[in-house]
Specification:
- By secondary structure, the chain is α/β, with parallel strands linked by helices.
- It has one domain (2-259): 3-Layer(aba) Sandwich (Rossmann fold).
- It is 34% helix and 17% strand.
- The protein contains nine helices and eight strands.
- It has helices at residues 42-45, 74-88, 101-112, 133-141, 146-150, 159-166, 213-222, 238-241, 243-265, and strands spanning 2-6, 9-14, 27-31, 54-58, 94-99, 117-123, 200-205, 226-231.
- An eight-stranded mixed β-sheet has the order 1-2-4-3-5-6-7-8, sandwiched between helices.
- Helix 2 packs across helix 3.
- It is globular.
- Mean pLDDT is 91; it is low at 259-266.
Length: 266
């Protein structure tokens, strides 16, 4: 287990292949969604190639093993992630990989810190996320409706896979007076994301009932240098439900873009 102090709070992260040296291969920062943790990336991490990747999965504040409460805005989360990378000593631009709320944070992070991000991977996300009204109340009280949450998965997903995801919700910590989750109800990046020009891979599950695949198609239209991939047999947690397929797409994206960048710069 790895902890690091960031902005007066102890933050948990896992870096199974270590950290890249300066100028070495790109670090992939894996950012989970609302109510998740770095554990959600475990199935996909097992499929990645240590010769090609340096993944770092973080528990955001108020999630998993990290201290603190859920930040009150995605701007605050983007600022936190910038400080986290500084504390790790990462200066080389990263590949940001985010699922659901983590993807929306990634869009904000790339817009706010363009020199930090070389590549974007956006999974089951949108430029605007509208959380179910019950989600905030469940997060505040810690009383999660598991039957509702189970609908996030494709029908054929095994129960143990669902449990890996759902068990992490209990560790989500909001301020008692919270009126929103990361201020997401006031966030709409639909116009802003058209300014992004960096290579972007957009992944969606064909059975995602939380964030419709139509939203991923919209992102693809909005971001010029993007590629859209629909993962069959996957719901909202496609990186847990179809980890081998998702890992293969990310590895292909990372390697292909690296080759294109090298050719362009030669």
């Amino acid at each position: 287990m790895s902890f690091i102090q960031v902005a007066n709070r102890k933050v948990y992260y896992r870096a199974p292949f270590g950290l890249p040296s300066q100028g070495d291969r790109t670090l992939q920062l894996l950012v989970h969604g609302a109510g998740g943790s770095s554990r959600h990336w475990e199935p996909m991490l097992a499929q990645l190639d240590a010769a090609e990747c340096f993944p770092v999965a973080i528990d955001l504040p108020g999630h998993g093993a990290s201290e603190g409460y859920v930040p009150d805005s995605i701007d605050a989360v983007a600022e936190f992630l910038n400080a986290f990378l500084d504390r790790l000593g990462i200066e080389h631009p990263i590949c940001y990989v985010g699922q659901s709320m983590g993807g929306l944070i990634g869009l904000q992070f790339a817009l706010a810190y363009p020199d930090r991000v070389a590549q974007l991977v956006l999974m089951a996300t949108s430029a605007r996320i509208q959380l179910h009204p019950d989600f905030l109340q469940q997060a505040i009280t810690g009383q999660w409706n598991r039957e509702t949450l189970w609908q996030s998965f494709a029908p054929e997903v095994p129960e143990n896979v669902k449990e890996l995801v759902l068990n992490e919700f209990q560790y989500t910590r909001l301020q008692a007076n919270a009126s929103d989750f990361m201020g997401v109800s006031a966030v709409d990046l639909s116009s802003a994301v058209s300014a992004l020009r960096l290579p972007t891979l957009i992944l969606t599950g064909d059975d995602d009932v939380i964030i419709s695949p139509r939203k991923s198609k919209m992102l693809h239209w909005q971001i010029e240098n993007s590629r859209l991939v629909t993962v069959p047999g996957a719901g909202h947690y496609l990186h847990v439900e179809q980890p081998a397929k998702v890992a293969a797409e990310i590895l292909h994206f990372v390697k292909s873009d690296r080759f294109v960048s090298a050719s362009t710069n030669s």
